[in-house]
């Protein structure tokens, strides 16, 4: 499968417009008049009659005459006095006088159906839930007016809900004042063996708030190579109408991503939709790199880590043994037993760190246990091994803290990454030169992987840090000095040069936008001043026919004044930095600088929105595992996308916060992210 040329119209498949059929198939609700009228069977099948439920009056009804006369009767029916009492409810909050108030309540069937769709989506419930007796009993008690629906109706409601919300998100993307950054990752479902792609859009909105929305969660067709994935991504961007608003894409280390990025760059270059010839276009996932680095290092320290792992497993395997261990801890060593022994997950190094940390907390108890339990003695560590474990834990803590920042639920702006990555780099350099020789082989292997990442992406990380008023250029220079010494100035100069080139492109963009808004307001500037002087100046008449240097001289003066003027970037860099450890919202800082740095803030808005981690997309795969279960493995791809996207969009609107619910633990725990 090859990538379509820029002139070829992109084919519209069922990845976007297939949801329109659900809107067209939406059934019209039954006329409300029949809620208070009963159809009567007549001997003559061509004759229809209806009886009022209140006064029992019988009316003739014909398909040609409609139901207007029935509605008029219900509006004037004298016995219809009990109906309105069902439209009132006692408020849960008492009035200021302390007396419960009565509020007017009107049952809305459509709103109730939408609430059920939200319940299914956010809870990852099966559509069969609406047919379960317990659910129907709950709804009957909560709202007697609610009419039961089938699983097919519930599924159709979710698709309709998705189509409407998708249009709203599309409008948000269209109104985004700056460019849009992307994260993309692939995931294989173990239950269906389908390969899914997740594409997430990131941008800073008009209120200077960082926004994130999943815009694609679809099963791919084989082959799963870079060309095919590039076509899928281009199709997605075209359908959402943002193919000319892309600034950057963040990817993991998969080999096919290099081919995909090359295809995307070629297409964007053809459309002139790429900045600085793609120098800022791609970023590797920083969390993924740290994961690979630490896992590679821990493999060389697996002996002592394996002893700790097996020892904790031995204690926790028996409930009686576990209870005795915590009793001894509490009564003999007076430690807080609410902090438990942590057993690691081999595929997640952060759990390995937490396991090592917990073992150091219980070090004395574990030594005591080893002296009295013969079966545990094979897992006991010597004093030297414990010292090495303490050094290893301190070394890994830097990686753990940085990963927690990178993988947080409130995804940080790009300026925060530079400081974290620099700390990792500095720790690796210091450890190699340090006195702990047992760490040297492990750290050298970690350095090889890290140096490759740093060489490729320190430019983007540094530029984002410079736009943080606490760091600016001085902090970046300091960090590079600690790493490269006398050669640091060469790296800093390269970074500053690229930042200026990028800023110049934004200045051109800003001026072209301003000139288009200004229209022809500057036409009068072209009118020569006192043009009649040349007609009466005999001394200049001989030279006017040869050439007139006045226009060229004016341009020269104008260009000279522009060159002498300092750019907004220069002014920003010359101002003193804020306190290094001050707690500020960098987006709030730039929103308040819109008057002074009206050009520079355009660059800051886009550069700070770059996600240096694919955690946003990877967290969707944790959600996908809850949607595609063994009991729901037959869900169609379009339904999977609808549920995953709706759940993400609902969370983005603060749904859980509004109704007083706590977010899932998965969002707050770094260990839930599947690297």
Automatic annotation (TrEMBL):
It is found in: Nucleus. Residues 28-85 form the BED-type domain. GO terms for molecular function: DNA binding; protein dimerization activity; zinc ion binding. Keywords: DNA-binding, Metal-binding, Nucleus, Transcription, Transcription regulation, Zinc, Zinc-finger. GO terms for cellular component: nucleus. InterPro entries: hAT-like_transposase_RNase-H, HATC_C_dom, RNaseH-like_sf, Znf_BED, ZnF_BED_domain_contain, Znf_C2H2_sf. SMART domains: ZnF_BED (SM00614). It comes from the Eukaryota. It holds the Pfam family hAT-like_RNase-H. Homodimer. This is BED-type domain-containing protein. It comes from Gossypium tomentosum (Hawaiian cotton).
